Amino acid sequence: QIEKMGTALAERTARCVLERHRYNPRDPFQLLDNPRDLKQARHSYRRLALLLHPDKWQKNLALKHLCEEAFKLVNNSFKSIQSSYGGEDGALHGDEAEAEGDAAWPAWYEDYYRG
């Protein structure tokens, strides 16, 4: 019973990730639930990676392939977000950082959504 629930959750999550990517393929933030900083992005990434990792679904080949595609998208989104926040430390480079020290939204995000 628990395995069936995990399978259903993984399938729904993978389909949701793929649908979000189809809706807006240029927005990596959308796949990781619009994180405000690298810590939130890392938390979302790890949660999704744990659920969608294809090695977890060796017995169900259809689900494995579905999760493989979704996992690639999540992984690429996290890499993109990580590079936009300046790497491992989570801070933006130079004058893009806010004065209070919080991680600011990337400049392209501000221009695209608020400009």
Shape: elongated
* Alpha carbon gap, first and last residue: 49 Å
Helical percentage: 55-70%
The major pleated sheet works out as: none
Strand content: under 5%
Order of helical and strand elements: HHHHH
Number of DSSP helical runs: 5
Count of distinct strands: 0
Unreliable stretches = 90-105
Structural class: mainly alpha
Radius of gyration: 16 Å
Oligomer state equals: single chain
Overall pLDDT: 78
Q: Could you explain the architecture of this structure?
A:
With 115 residues, this protein is mostly helical. The chain is built from 5 helices and no strands. It is elongated and about 40 Å long. It starts with a helix and ends with a helix. The model is unreliable at 90-105 (pLDDT under 50).
Quick take:
This protein is mainly alpha-helical and 115 residues long.
SSE diagram, text form:
Elements: H1 2-23, H2 28-31, H3 38-52, H4 61-84, H5 107-114
Features:
elongated; mainly alpha; 0% strand; single chain; 5 helices; 115 residues
